Amino acid sequence: MPEFLQRRYWVFDLDGTLTLPVHDFEHIRAELGLPSGADILTTLARLPEPEKAHQYARLDELELLYAARTQPAPAVVELLALLSERGCRLGILTRNSRAVALRSLEAIGAGRFFAPGNVLGRDEARPKPDPQGIEQLLQCWRARPQQAVMVGDFRYDLEAGRACGTATIHLDHGVHPGWPELTDLRVTSLAQLLEMLI
Ligand SMILES: [Mg+2]
After folding, report:
1. CATH class of 3-21+71-197
2. pLDDT mean values, one per 10 residues, the chain (198 residues)
3. pTM score, two decimals?
4. Whether domain 25-68 has CATH 3.40.190
5. CA 74 to ligand 1 center in whole angstroms
6. Domain boundaries, the chain
7. Mind giving me the DSSP string for 140-176?
8. Pairwise CA distance, residues 165 & 160, whole Å
9. CA 154 to ligand 1 centroid distance, Å
């Protein structure tokens, strides 16, 4: 078992990591009139007002819609319960809004594992791959990156962890080729990660 699995500070991506990957980003892009494959947050940030505010509001609506339909990733509650029992501090860093993230966490039965202040959305920190959100959580926990782990299913999660200096775990759904250069540990499910922790 890698040494870093013993660490006490864990930051998770939300969508597709703690939840099943149901976010249909192409559908969201289409609804917002963005080109296929465009980075949604970067594209919206560059829009002039009032279109920008309008598009952000529309994005919030679409995301709340998805949040209500969120399904838990298998073994997510067991994994978070184990880490909590071991005294780990748990945080979320998501490109969603905090409100949507909290709603999703409730929908999957994981709300009790996260203090709302430890759930950082796009209004609390610069979006991944910027490491600012992880740094903010570590500062709040008075922890160093060498005591922390970042878990996520996308390149941005791993890049944010790398940039901050945490260990990185890639939850690999097999839809991307993977990023070995950014990954300290690759698992194909949270159940596999749970097994390694027991
Ligand atoms: Mg994700």
Report:
1. alpha beta
2. 95 95 81 93 94 94 85 97 98 93 94 97 95 98 98 97 98 92 98 97
3. 0.86
4. no
5. 15
6. 3-21+71-197, 25-68
7. HHT--GGGEEEEESSHHHHHHHHHHT-EEEEE--SSS
8. 9
9. 6
